[in-house]
Design brief:
alpha/beta; 16 strands; 3 domains; Glucose Oxidase, domain 1; 3-stranded parallel sheet; TIM Barrel; single chain; 8-stranded parallel beta barrel; binds magnesium ion; 45% helix; binds phosphoenolpyruvate
Length: 465
């Protein structure tokens, strides 16, 4: 549309993986629906892009290609500017400067590391993100969302083939195609983080985000899978859920379709062994998502360990690895002592934990949260600033229960709160070992970890003695 090589802002009602090409090309992203932890915000943050998500008062017409905001109407080609930190959208093109790590800033960062107790890791899904975060001082990856690894290029097609498969045979066929893709991607990530831990989370895609909803995408999948358009349509229909966020995702997927967990475990360990042969030190930590019961965790752990033992036998070589879980379902926090029987580490997924504790949909809260804050019902957006009184109680309880069962259990946080200073202070007080945040938030997190330790010298030591 004549915008090639121009700086553009992508304006959408909400985003899905179908918008990835657009998100990649855009300088910034503005959505009417969503919030701090919606698809647009999470993906944009990972890409290091500016994003204002959940601007509930704007009106977008896809048909007319217009945006209405504060009484003004904008059409394709008009200028707007975004401030992703404050959520403000400005009329016209505002001058910006690229941030730099200046001399004094570098010194401050080094000083922060000296004073801090908590390590700062990053949430990264690509080698590029991992390298950026490492340059910003990240000490490992706390969350690699493997479903995001399928966003680039044509990989989404392979992922859709797996999701749309009608039976186990079809799924295994698609998974065989996904294995080399995953293994190569893991090699890239491990290499970028050599010598540092990398927490790889097994697949956790809300399925609605990944199936093609438009006819063009459905026709494409029919061609790839050599089935009729009707078959694809029926499968998309069968996969549709009333509430996908609480549906067939996380370890529910890996427990109902164990072949997915098998493929991913194999890809992770084969990648690590391939790197070992090149003298690159890969330290995988395999993380099970959305665990709610010990039985769910145990079943996943068993699939992971059995698969890995098989790979070790085939290759005649071994490597150290860990198996742990996210704590993001309230029930997991309440039964953390049990879950720690199987999990070697906990990583608090405070995006989902906030969603499920408040009962606020991550994708829809943008509609009412600003009003709640304006009316004083809430002091902050709980998806941005950890609700220490409620959600924090669950975190603290899980820490205590987890440690009771497994004294040396490794503890971290990988929800968006891992990059927010007051939440980082809370994490320090309850004795976590690391916070993990998107690459561009690493510097602020490093400063916050030092400040937290200076303010609460005793608490961390007491918890970790
Ligand atoms: C979380 O729920 O906090 C989390 C990190 O996982 P995701 O945002 O991918 O659901
Ligand atoms: Mg989650």
């Amino acid at each position: 549309m004549g915008f090639r090589r121009k700086k553009v802002v992508l304006v959408r009602i909400e985003t899905s993986p179908e918008d990835l090409k657009g998100m990649n090309s855009a300088e910034g992203i503005l959505t009417a629906r969503g919030g701090m932890t919606s698809h647009a915000a999470v993906v944009a943050r990972g890409m290091g892009k500016c994003c204002v998500s959940g601007a509930g008062s704007i009106k977008i017409s896809y048909k007319a290609k217009t945006l209405e905001m504060s009484g003004n109407k904008y059409k394709e080609g008009d200028f707007i500017s975004l401030n992703g930190s404050t959520g403000e959208v400005y009329d016209g093109m505002i001058k910006t400067v690229d941030p730099e790590m200046s001399g004094y800033f570098g010194k401050l960062m080094k000083l922060s590391d000296k004073k801090a107790r908590l390590a700062v890791r990053t949430n990264a899904d690509t080698p590029l993100d991992a390298r950026v975060a490492r340059e910003f001082g990240a000490k490992g990856i706390g969350l690699c969302r493997t479903e995001h690894m399928f966003f680039g290029g044509d990989k989404i097609i392979a992922m859709r083939e797996m999701i749309l498969a009608e039976d186990e045979e079809g799924r295994r066929k698609a998974l065989a195609g996904l294995l080399p893709i995953q293994r190569k991607d893991f090699e890239g990530i491990f290499e970028a983080m050599h010598g540092l831990p990398v927490t790889v989370r097994l697949l956790d895609p809300p399925l609605h985000e990944f199936v093609p909803h438009d006819e063009k995408g459905q026709k494409e999948m029919a061609k790839v899978m050599v089935v009729s358009l009707e078959t694809i349509k029926a499968q998309v229909e069968a996969l549709s859920e009333v509430n996908p966020m609480l549906g067939h995702r996380g370890c529910r997927l890996g427990n109902t379709y164990p072949e997915i967990t098998e493929m991913q475990s194999r890809a992770i360990i084969e990648a690590a062994l391939n790197l070992k042969a090149r003298k690159i030190d890969a330290r995988p930590e395999i993380m099970i998502p959305l665990t709610g019961t010990l039985a769910e965790m145990k079943m996943q752990e068993q699939i992971v360990r059995t698969t890995i033992e098989k790979v070790f036998e085939e290759r005649g070589q071994k490597i150290d690895f860990m198996v742990g879980t996210m704590i993001e379902v309230p029930r997991a926090a309440l039964t953390a002592d049990k879950i720690a029987q199987s999990a070697e580490f906990f990583s608090f997924g405070t995006n989902d934990l906030t969603q499920m504790t408040f009962g606020y949909s991550r994708d829809d809260a943008g509609k009412f949260l600003p009003i709640y804050i304006e009316k004083g019902i809430l002091k902050n957006d709980p998806f941005q600033v950890l609700d220490q009184e409620g959600v924090g109680q669950l975190v603290e309880m899980a820490v205590k229960k987890g440690r009771k069962t497994r004294k040396k259990i490794k503890l971290g946080i990988c929800g968006e709160h891992g990059g927010e200073p007051s939440s980082i202070e809370f994490c320090h007080r309850v004795g976590l070992h690391y916070v993990s945040c998107s690459p561009y938030r690493v510097p602020i997190a490093r400063l916050a970890t030092a400040q937290a330790n200076i303010m609460n010298k005793r608490s961390w030591k007491k918890m970790n003695k």
